[in-house]
Amino acid sequence: MQYMTAGESHGPQLTAIVDGVPAGLHISEESINADLARRQSGYGRGGRQKIERDVVRITSGVRFGKTLGSPITLVVENHDWENWTERMSVFGEPPVDLKRETTPRPGHADLVGALKTDTDDCRDILERASARETAARVAAAGIARELLADLGVEVFSYVTSIGSAKMHEKDPMLEAPDYKPLEIEISDVRCPNEAAADAMRAEIDKAIELGESLGGTFRVVARGLVPGLGGYATASERLTSRIAAALFSIPAIKGVEFGLGFEAARLPGSRVHDEIKLDPAVGFTRSSNNAGGLEGGMTTGMPLVATCAMKPIPTLMTPLQTVDLDTLEPAAASKERSDTCAVPACAVVAEGELAFALANAYLEKFGHDNMADIRANIAAYRQRLKTVAR
After folding, report:
1. Rounded CA gap, 25 and 181, in Å?
2. What pLDDT score does 271 carry?
3. Phi, psi of 373 (to 5 degrees)
4. Is the pLDDT reported for residue 224 higher than 70?
């Protein structure tokens, strides 16, 4: 199962096509729209969110609420298009008063993209490199989330830091799977700890006053996974690398850790590796989850926990210095309408990327033609594992 997105930030719409979806999967537009709304929410978001109210429209691949096994097309319209129709027209001549973007922002794709594509207008780059593209990703990921939910897998996220404000956990790898998603969803910074959430809001308020932007860290968690997804024999099979690649495909992500991550490099093996136990009721299990649910490139059956680091948004209301592409003289970087902090929103996008990687792992192991066969294959696999554990 794979997806492709198309569309510009201020174009008429964003489009996603998802291919390789099994037949017979129930799809809910309401669930996808709920995810789109979560992506738009969060303390510190900018003015664009007041204009857009993202709603998905599915135009192919689904009939009477169930997938047909053919490519699914999802469309999210850009309401701001009406303000950009002349400046982003597909055909015709540019308007005489067109203002080109010639002052690339440090930290954005503006300059390198312009050099790569031989354009003198960074608008050609920033429209596609904009975080607005992630609305299409979240819509597409709704298909993967429906598949995982059908198979008993839940994916959620929560924010652990914004700027210097941090949420402290004694054992994150064991605590993370026990958080209640409802407690996270009612927080405008996606943090289940109210004291930490207050500190995060204060950090954002301070950044707004200074014309700054803030990044942070969050965890994405998947629970309900069977062991043995992924592979160990070749590099391309390893689920660790697949998930990391998916998370790093989000432009703002600068770091990904599984389980203890870098902390594992500072500890002796006896304090890192998860001891194996046998529970007659559930089979093989672990006394800890320092590996974050992945071992040897495969799922262990424990909750999968990945921590991501998001950089601050490149657009600053107090701009950094850059070079004007027309004059080649120093200049202040351009300002687009932007957020002060989008860490909670980025966490929702990361949920979608994790969901796609896991959905693919299930389809590779248990088949991909239709949901009835997939469910039957998983049931048989679970039964075999129970037999092994006896």
Report:
1. 24
2. 95
3. -65, -40
4. yes
Can you list the pairs that 334-339 forms with residues at least 24 positions away whose Cβ atoms lie under 8 Å?
334/101, 334/103, 334/104, 334/105, 334/110, 334/122, 336/126, 336/130, 337/46, 337/47, 337/48, 338/46, 338/48, 338/213, 338/313, 339/44, 339/45, 339/46, 339/48, 339/49, 339/213, 339/313
- Distances, alpha carbon 61 to alpha carbons 143, 144, 263, 374, in Å: 11, 14, 45, 19
Distance CA 291, CA 297 (A): 11
Mean pLDDT of 119-127: 96
Q: Give the count of beta carbons closer than 10 Å to the beta carbon of residue 261.
A: 16
The DSSP H or E segment spanning 85 is none
Quickly tell me which residue has 């500190």 as its tokens.
199
CB 123 within 8 A of CB 333: no
Residue 348: both structure tokens together: 């929702």
Residue 332 CA to residue 318 CA, distance in Å, equals 9
CA distances 321 to 103, 315, 324, Å, are 9, 12, 10
354 within 8 A of 220, measured Cβ to Cβ: yes
Sign of the alpha-carbon torsion through 299, 170, 196, 187: positive
Q: Assign 229 a pLDDT band (cuts: 50, 70, 90).
A: very high
The string of pLDDT tens digits covering residues 252-302 is 999 999 999 999 999 999 999 999 999 888 889 999 999 999 999 999 999
Q: In 216-347, which ranges are E strands?
A: 216-223, 253-258, 276-279, 283-286, 294-295, 298-299, 304-310, 321-323, 330-332
Q: Which of 93, 100, 98, 29 is nearest to 64 (CA)?
A: 29
Which tokens in the block code for residue 213?
């932007």
Name which of 225, 229, 228 is nearest 388 in CA terms: 228
Question: Are 3 and 16 within 8 A, CB to CB?
Answer: yes
